[in-house]
Amino acid sequence: MSLKKGAEVSLTIEGAAFKGKGVGKIDGLAIFVPGTMPGDIVKARIIKRKKNYREAKLLEIEQPSPDRIDPICQHAKVCGGCSWQHVPYEKQLQFKTQQVTDHIRRIGGLETPVLPALGSESSLYYRNKMEYSVSTKRWLTEEEIHSDEYVDDSGFAAGLHAPGRFDKILNLKECHLQRKESFEILDFVRNYCVKNGLEAYNTFEKTGYLRHVMIRTSYHTEDFMVNLVTFKDEPDTISKLSDTLLKEFPVITTIVNNVNDQISPTAVGRFENVIHGPGFIRDQIGEFEFKIHPNAFFQTNTAQAEKLYEVARNYADLKDGDIVYDLYCGVGTLSLFMSQKASKVLGIELVDVAVENAKFNASENKVENVSFIKGDMKDVFTQEMVNEFGAPDVLITDPPRAGMHPDVVARLCELKVPRMVYVSCDSSTMARDLKILSEVYDVIEVQPVDMFPQTYHVEAVAKLRLKQ
Ligand SMILES: C[S@@+](CC[C@H](N)C(=O)[O-])C[C@H]1O[C@@H](n2cnc3c(N)ncnc32)[C@H](O)[C@@H]1O
Question: Could you tell me the residue ranges of all domains in the chain?
Fold first, then answer.
């Protein structure tokens, strides 16, 4: 069979692979097909030819997997938000566990036990933050593209970016990632703008008014924030819109207006106006309370973040008086989590605002034994720093997706920390780093934690102990 680009093939999907794509084999060659799941028999077209595999576009599901379910959302096929809605949640967890196990075995070369992924108590409506975008350019549906009629893609679209497109917005008619008022507010704002002549921002012409609608909700309190991100600072316009919103949605406790009059497409404004309420929401992770401002980082699935940090704290096996290092500490949540038994905790982080937030969070929670250092890990995490702060009894590392810089991994091997915990949002780079660390440390156990149901993403926590 020809497996050239453009060839149409029929195959059985046998596994769930990288980025949630289904994978099957033809004559021993792996074919990756997005939008499928194990057990599906599909027709697909080869779109990319690589030496050892092919990538294909799904044309038709000839026979669905007996496990396949109907997605709850009409946008599931096109929207980048939930690529696994056709997979039952129990199966999603199995695939995630398998993915982490494969990485640990194949990339890490380790036989370490991998426990079943810890599932989220709700597999929908679990996000505490949604950042919807607004644009004059609407993403067309397959039917519209193939229709004989002329379809106008301009207007006022509010929703999520079409996968891989910075300029086109999928005009959402429903969304199940955040509690139901979240989508209702987006829909209301869209209708209000159209009715009152408030234009969507036009990325190319740099005109229009509304750019994003960000909604932050709290898991532990009743706080509810709407952040309207606009291109222009128009006090009258925003106050009329806010008054109407408050009347319609009494659940809202604060409204903020970020004004982003710059080209960059972010929801972070050059300045911010607090229109109603305190300008932040309060939430809790474990025993700590956080004041969350519109653009502060906060874990998006609060309940699962608590589980993740609990696993990390158990693996750390803290003893009274421990010196703890928290590498890549972000806003210091893990540092706080580790602070109670420790004599002192040092968090290290690259981003300025994150370090400011971390200091703020520590002082708000009256935690005095944590300190934070700003800098690039490979430059600031030195022997001199360790001499100054004291050798760590426990070290937590939670690097970004790319994993740790090789110099940092080498330093950890030299440092010989008695107890170490590796938290990761990409088990393939974690496995790469663990392979090197395993020369000096035993990798005892790995626990995957599912923070993002309906997606292929999974966090994993590894417990390491210095070899005897
Ligand atoms: C996965 S997040 C960790 C979040 C944090 N542990 C938490 O639970 O909230 C990774 C963090 O590493 C930081 N980071 C990325 N590159 C870095 C570097 N080279 N040096 C230090 N920190 C870095 C990022 O800014 C980010 O806050």
Answer: 1-68, 92-122+298-466, 129-292
